[in-house]
Amino acid sequence: MFNKAKETSSSDSGASFAPPPKRTAMKSKAPSILSSDLVLTGSIVSDGEIQLDGQVDGDVRAGSLIIGEDASVSGEVSAETVVIRGKVTGSVRARQVQLASTARIEGDIVHATLSVEAGAYFDGHCRHSSDPVQTGDATKSAKPKVDAPKTDSKPPAPGKPDPLDSLEPPVAASKSGF
User: Fold this and answer.
1) Per-domain residue ranges for the chain?
2) What is the DSSP annotation of 144-170?
C-alpha cells in the first residue's frame, strides 16, 4: 500500500536512475593513441586499435597496432595486424606484419603475411605460421609446471631402517708428501 504510493510519486518526479548506455560500439571504433611523450613500463592489452608513438617497456597485445617512427617497444608484440615504423626489441607475432622503411626490428617475427619496404632493418628469424597469434598463446599455456623435488627433513620413523645407514663413507686415498 505504501510502496505503491512511493513508486507513483518517484516516477512522477521525472528522476530516473537508469544505468548509462553501454559504449561497446565506440570501444571498437576509436583507436587508443599513446603520444610521443609517453613512457610506459608494463604491458598493454586491447582488443581494439592502438597507435603507439611513445616508448613501452613491456608486452603489447592488440587487435591492430601501429608503431610510429619515433616509438619503441621492448617486449613481445602480438596482434592481428601490425604496422611497424619505429623500433621493436623482442618478438613480433601477427597475422599481417608490415615493416616500413624506417622500421628497426631486433627479434623474431612469426606471421601469416609479411611485407618489408626497402630500407627496413630486421635482425632475427622469420617464420610463417597459418595462425601466429594463437600459436604463441597456446605454447605459453602448454608449458608444464615443474615443481622442485620435495625433500623430507624428518628423521625416519622408529622401527624403520634408515636407508642412509647402509652407505659407507667414502675412503679417501691420498698421497701426501708431508
Assistant:
1) 29-131
2) PP-PPPP---SPPPTTSPPGGGGPPPP
